[in-house]
Amino acid sequence: MDDIPRDQLSGALRRGAVKKHVAAIHVSGKLTLLQRKLSNVLLLNAYDTLTSRSRHQIDARTLCLMIGYNSNDMETLKQSLRGLAETVAEWDMLDEKGQQEWGVSSLVSYAKLKGGVCEYAYSPALAEKLHDPKVFALINLNIQRRFTSGHALALYENCYRFVRIGSTGWWPLDLFRRLMGVDGSSYYETFKHLNAKVIKPAVAEVNKTSNIIVTPETRKQGRAVTEIRFLIKDNPQLAILDIDDGEGMRHGPVYARLRQMGVSDRLARQWLSVHGEEQVTAKLDYVETRKNVKSKVGYLSAALDGNFGVETDDGGRAGTVPINARAERLRRILEVVKARTPTQRDADRRLFLSQLTDGKARDDFSKHGWMSPLNAARIRLFWAEMSPGLFDEIEDEAP
Fold first, then answer.
1. Is there a single domain that holds both residue 127 and residue 145?
2. pTM for the full model?
3. How far is the C-alpha of 76 from the C-alpha of 131, rounded, in Å?
4. Which residues are in the Initiator Rep protein WH1 domain (predicted)?
5. Which of 86, 173, 257, 379 places its Cα 20 to 30 Å from the Cα of 106?
């Protein structure tokens, strides 16, 4: 049966294939490029608690940075959020019992800006669908930043969800126009115009910009094009982009050592993000020399949090960091960093790096992260601004 094209199957045979693979969530509405990027950032920010929390938050500055919008013009952000609340997400798929399920929901159920924080929510039904990897594929923010056309990003989103299958399946042209946000335009009712102004430019940008290559195919009734599908394959030139933000470290040797020790995927990436590869490597080397340790993962966690096994100023080994203001500030910073979502941590690092003009300072931060000794004073000021009151009751001494 593997040799039979799926689109030629029918009934239960085709239903099994559909149930096994990605089911589409179609987003209608004429979203701008900024709104599409905003939608993806909000989803990634909320993803870990999508079904366990009814509301999600992200600071507005982080949000603007992640969508590449560095303006203080909150009116534009408000307009984009309003557009998401007015946009409809629709799904039509088989549930786990093989029953057909149709549903519709606004893309976000509400959004508000208050005190520099954006709060938003999804309807419970949509949150359940968005959180299921069999139904919805997260869009890589590293890739979406590269898009300059809303049509291209829309095409990428709708094709990437079917990357495991290799084809989107046949879409009626009316549905395709709706997915591209050009429905209702008499100009694009003509396939010649749709192909020249939307399909060809979007395909060219997806193939040049993203980690997939798409090839359009059409079906006709008589001389008129009535359906379109896109064949999908990996783009070998940009395959390295096929990772979620912060996940490039999965390909590194330090990540491999952590996983071999038994550290979970999420915790390994968190430690590498917070502490940097050099610091984690040093702690790994130290822990691996210790004998009679029942849980090396637990000992490594304690070493990272408590800073065991680092050289003291006099060249000796320290059991723990001295209890002083400097160590307490660092401890609080790392606690705040650990509590933030992966999207927020990535934005924090980018924002801090953008403030560093000295090459040595940037290199030191890239190696050591928030434990960078060369940037200690700048880091202290950065987090004092990001989290007012973070250093309350700590003796004011030089960092």
1. no
2. 0.53
3. 28
4. 18-159
5. 173
CA dihedral sign of residues 24, 29, 30, 36:
negative
Query: How far apart, in Å, are the Cα atoms of 289 and each of 36, 277, 278?
Result: 49, 18, 17
- Contact, 355 vs 382, CB < 8 A? yes
Domain closes at, from 107, 135, 163: 135
Per-residue confidence (pLDDT) for residue 92, from 0 to 100: 72
Domain that holds residue 10: 1-135
Are residue 382 and residue 252 in the same domain, yes or no? yes
Q: pLDDT tens across 356-386, in order?
A: 777 888 888 887 888 887 888 888 888 887 7
Give pLDDT < 50 ranges for the chain: 1-23, 240-246, 310-323, 397-399
Q: Is residue 398 part of a domain?
A: no
Residue with tokens 């910073």: 333
- Contact by Cβ (8 Å): 234, 159: no
- Residue 308 domain-assigned? yes
Q: Give the other-Cβ count within 10 Å of 194's Cβ.
A: 21
- Count Cβ neighbours within 10 Å for each residue of 158-180 and write b for 16 or more, e otherwise: bbbbbbeeebbeebebebbbbbb
Interval 1-34: pLDDT, tens:
333 333 432 332 232 222 223 445 667 657 788 8
Identify the CATH number of the domain in which residue 185 sits: 1.10.10.10
Q: What does the alpha-carbon distance between residue 230 and residue 364 come to, in Å, rounded to a whole number? A: 45
> 81 near 38, Cβ under 8 Å?
yes
